[in-house]
Write a structure and sequence with these properties.
By secondary structure, this protein is α/β, with parallel strands linked by helices. It has 11 helices and 13 strands. The strands form 3 sheets. The protein has a 6-stranded mixed beta sheet, with helices on both faces. The protein is globular.
């Protein structure tokens, strides 16, 4: 427990590395992965590899945590000795999780909760969670946390590409025209989260390797805006490029302070499929 007794909570749509979660007591509320034979809590009842293995027979849907699940997590943090909480969520433009957390937080008695909308997802949203923990442990007052984290979220960028657009189309994340054009011409869009926290295409590349190179180039360009940055890379097991891309980031971004390597949660892989590589960049606050 940190000296300020401020709990850090998040949902599984923000991919925070497991060792950081354990070291900083990050409380995770799982999103749901829903099959015809039942609903499974992401990263609790089902793993990313298990979701991928089941793609051959069924592509599941996902849903947000229930209000009760969120309240239970907040009540548990309070019972464990925390006096306040910051709950960092995936983009409100992609999920109703943020709105649901806001609703539950407003009903908590004697346990103030600040809710932060990252306007992002995956490893980039995870960087915001990690920043929240560092701020709390560094002594940033509770009443300043939401403002600082909201500003930092706006400066945190995510870029990702997938080998097969089918899963994004199946989940309604891209339209039919983008899917068909990309499939026929072997176009690999590089996506990002726009100011509203929704998926948008920043570039279309002919082929997988060109898309990965474009992602890295966007991270490099964004990094130039700041004195020092933290970068991140995430991959599914089928496209494990973690060490390779992390090494490229360290070699080509002179102001990088750290490179975070992460997997992708079961709830996110439902929408991206088994072939995903994502990259993120975030300024280091003074």
């Amino acid at each position: 427990m940190n000296d300020q007794r401020i709990a850090i909570l998040t949902d599984t749509g923000t991919n925070v590395p497991a060792d950081f979660v354990a070291a900083h007591d990050i409380r995770q509320v799982p999103l749901m992965v829903n099959y015809s034979d039942g609903a499974f809590r992401s990263e609790v009842d089902i793993t990313t590899d298990e979701v991928i293995d089941r793609f051959a027979t069924e592509i599941p849907t996902t849903s947000l945590p229930s209000p009760n699940d969120i309240k239970v997590a907040l009540d548990k943090a309070h019972a464990d000795g925390y006096e306040k909480a910051v709950f960092v969520t995936i983009s409100s433009g992609l999920s109703a999780t943020n709105a649901t957390v806001e609703l539950v937080a407003g009903q908590m008695e004697d346990f103030p909760v600040e809710v932060v909308d990252t306007k992002s997802i995956g490893v980039a949203a995870g960087l915001v969670v990690m920043a929240a923990a560092r701020m709390v442990e560094g002594g940033v007052p509770f009443d300043q946390l939401k403002g600082k984290l909201t500003l930092l979220s706006a400066d945190t960028r995510v870029y990702f590409t997938v080998k097969d657009l089918y899963y994004l189309r199946h989940g309604g994340r891209i339209n039919e025209a983008t899917y068909r054009l990309g499939s026929v011409l072997n176009l690999k869009p590089v996506f990002y989260c726009d100011a509203e926290g929704k998926y948008a295409t920043v570039k279309k590349c002919r082929g997988w390797e060109k898309a990965l190179a474009a992602e890295l180039a966007f991270v490099q360009e964004q990094a130039k805006k700041y004195k020092k940055v933290i970068c991140a890379v995430c991959c599914t097991k089928a496209e494990d490029r973690l060490d390779e891309i992390a090494a490229k980031m360290r070699a080509t971004i002179p102001n990088v302070a750290d490179v975070i390597k992460s997997g992708i949660s079961p709830d996110l892989v439902v929408h991206t499929g088994p072939g995903l590589v994502g990259m993120a960049v975030q300024p280091v606050l003074d």
